[in-house]
Fold each of these.
Amino acid sequence: MSGAARPDFISRQYAFAAHIRDPHNNPAPAGIEDRRLGIYRELFFNNVEGFLSSSFPVLKQLYTEQDWLALARDFFAGHHCHSPLFLEIPREFLAYLDNERGQRDTDPPFLRELAHYEWVELALSVAEDKTTSKNDGHYP
């Protein structure tokens, strides 16, 4: 919608999403009870953090709980994923590490390498097996 104002419902959706992702820097949309927003904030963040924890278990072990949650929160708040697929979250996390997050004092010096290794393990474990012949296993 270049040049045109967004319809009100779209503006409200963007405000809602911005608040859910980063409630400290984006005000809550008007007319929604904070208790309800809190449920959404917790649900969305916990889902993303859960995917990160299960995708990068060794990396998570290298952080204190507080530092891991800060890393996950920073990713959740600041990175705009390019895929709507949950299985793409680990790849998006790698893009965040490579392109957006600078080295922090709490990060191991091999953060990106370890994350990439764990992502490769995950990608291989969910990859479809393309080695079977298209002729149902019968050889010519």
Amino acid sequence: MAERIDDRTPVLLGVGAVRQREDDPRVALEPVALMAQALQRADDDTGAPALLTRADRILIPRGFWDYPDPGRLVAERVGAASARTLVAEIGVLQTTLLAEAVRSIATGDADVVLVAGGEAKYRAARALTLGVEAPTTQQPRDTRPDAVLAPHEDILHPLELERGIVLPVAQYAMMESALRHANGTTLAAHRAELGELWASYNRVAASNPVAWSPEPRTAEEIATAGSGNPMLALPYTKLLTSQWNVDQAAGLILCAAGVARALRVPEARWVFPLGIAESNHMVPLAERAHIARCPGFAIAGQRLAERVGIAAAAADVLEVYSCFPAAVRLQCRELGIDHSRTLTVTGGMAFAGGPLNNFVLQAMVRTADVLRSQPGATALVTAVSGMVTKQGVSLWASRAPQQRFTYDDVAAEVATATETVDVEGDRTGTGRVAAYTVLHERGTPRRGVALVDFADGTRTLATTDDAAQVAALLEREWCGHPVTVTAGGELSVA
């Protein structure tokens, strides 16, 4: 097979993942050390001698940590002295980062590229609880990476910021209500549906050796609020949300096929990127006319199918990005994926662990392992940034590609296909609920939130802290029903 592959064909050659669960933060490794460890495992995975030292570039997505140039710290630890560094800021799709790595190899800009990401948020939480310092490597504040990828627009609408509706759990819960209404599902049936969906992810986590929370959970246990599983934002309990208080890291080694061939890495270890399509068109949740739809995934999926000749839903292996159930349900709807299929190889972000801005790298480690065990198979790995604000789809294979790697940003097409509404903060009167949720504090309902559409086509974001109003929001379905908004965006439903 190798003789038929062009030397500049990009290959994912080595993968490694790390899970650290050390209760003493003074002993636990910091994020850059975890990333270096993951890359060392990826180097071992290749079976090639000292491949890390040949790295031309090292790419890292921004996390909760504040290293100015984490790539340089990681490069020093793995012996990649000459590697150029890049940081992808929050709001950049992880598919964009992978495309950057693959394209630099395909164009001859690099022969070996390292991609790594990691968090030590569990370590930080333990340090806070114990009142001790967790040692962290310092860099001069004026240190800069060689390159930076940054989003070109804001994720949140000014009114969302003004009214404090900024947490992902709140915005995804509102999306969930719109999906439920669009599907005509009752509250009870919807709750059961969410439990079953997440239980299917949980079953896979049990077989993932680096999953953060692989303990078996039933659908009823996941969807039912209780002392160990508090409601966060209707209908999301804690077990229905991403778990990002984790110490995890992932490392990928990509190289040109000519390098892999010269190092005599067995062809059975090669994993090929076939194509990536993504949309970087950004529309805040409050402005989306159709909250239960996502044109970005539909268009990106179609473009990738045209380029590669494989529909997203036809991939043999799936890893559907799983920060919240609404994200999974939107993706399946737009990409034509049957919910009854196994949608993950990791177990998802609630159970495998969801390190900030890094989960797709964790997913790629498992995906590569699965593809290697299934010669000729293809895999779909999706990505989300923000509140399904950006959408990415990628296809990978354990067989040699029939064409060159393709990359498309379909933002222009998505902009044309995406309908928006004007959002007015001072709008009052009677309108209909487009989406809503009830935010909880320590399991107690505290605040009602709704996107309200008016007959003239405008929309506002309304809230209420009134106990009676909040209680009314919990009693029945409110999407599509009339409510009143008064001065200051005060919501009244009863």
Amino acid sequence: MIEAAVFYVFGAVLLASGLLVVTSRNPVHSALFLVLAFFTAAGIWLLLRAEFLAIALVVVYVGAVMVLFLFVVMMLDINLERIREGFWRNLPLALVVGGIMVAEMVFILWGRVWGVSAQKPLPPGYSNTRELGRVLYTDYGLAFEIAAVILLVAIIAAISLTLRRRKDSRSQDPAEQVRARRSERVRLVSMPVELDK
């Protein structure tokens, strides 16, 4: 009973934070709400006794991907007004994609509740981490490698976006500073001495 109540609380927080990720006007606030959503999803994984997935979600997404996302958001000059211009134009497509995702989730839950019999009890010494590793690196080895390449491309793209030249950036050239001569920087002016009367 307590576990079900905690699950519903976590689910409500996850839904609210996911909604705030999409509706927040500030991209940094959206990133922080996404961190909250990741932590809440990790809590739900813990309730489902999938400890490895919960820790991996926190370490990989919160510890690495979100730090990279916040770095890119802080470094880029994002014109928020231009981004908001296409909101209403893209709303029908977003509603269609969101409706498809909701239909998929309802279909999965419908099959889980009414279409599938209860699972057999797990044998003693069963490790979900070992089973996840076995399935991931044998049955889905190619998909895992493709996902790794896509993440590498995303990291390279984020770095290349932050390395562009900005108009308001100032740089320092130590070689030019060392080459400076006194005659170029200092001008001696002789002035007559004025005595106080």
Amino acid sequence: MTSKFNHLSQVQRYQIEALKVAGHSQRYIADILLVHKSTISRELSRNSTQTAKLPDKYKASQADHFAIKRIYKPVKVKSGNKDIERRIAWLLRFDWSPEQIASSCRLRGIKMLSTEGIYLWIYSQARNPIDYTNYLRRHHRKRRKRKLKNQPRTIIKSRVSIHERPPEVMEQLRFGDMETDLVKCQNGYLLTITERKSLFNLIVKLPNKEAMTIQIAIISALLPVKKCIKTITSDNGTEFAYHQIISEALGVPWYFADPYCSQQRGCNENQNGLIRQYYKRNTDLNLITQASINLVQDKLNNRPRKKNKFISPTKLLDLHKVAFAA
């Protein structure tokens, strides 16, 4: 194993291909190439053609092409431009993410760094009086992996599986399919309801997560626009135990995601992460009014979204003349 890090060369990739075809293990290949076994593992997972079948899954020429495309190219041309830096700082103060800043400026023909360039600029300002990482969604000062924590499985009576949900809901072909969840804070919870296609959000302050409290809150929030609602999807928390009453009151079916599969409600989970920029877990909701929560709700609903080609949820609903935003 070499003590200094080096990228694999094209010659080494051809050796890997030949040794894989010969049926040798990753550890054996690593010993032959004098690299760590994890280097071979990463090479095969990153640079293989996923749609191909063995033994054509890993080809040295294609792998080398993948690696060259992924090589990071530092942003130097515009990083010293004070106008660009002032624009980044100004938009960060309005809670725009680096990706929103980069993409919106590109669409408008305004000079701007790439998304990665903006992140690098933010991290480079660590010694300055203003810490711009405080304007990031989760205030990360460096890249880190997300960790999933399993929750106890809960069985709810008369639950209908998400697998019975109409396929057009998954494909997001229409407006009105909702996802809901709770965001825990100190002395209370935030009920979040997200419309899947537009990412329009409703946020309601709650004193607790009792099923009756959730029932009243969801019906009150959605009853004025019940004609626009098609389905509701949630996780398996006991707070949604009265889902049948809510379903009957709104006249829409209710579906439950599989346990430990938050990705099945990805739209809502992502919005909950955005809400955490404003309301951390230790935020005392006794000090927060619903009026101030509505201001955060409006901020999120009027932000450009990548999924919507950087059109805000409110504008997207308005363009399609959907009354849900009214």
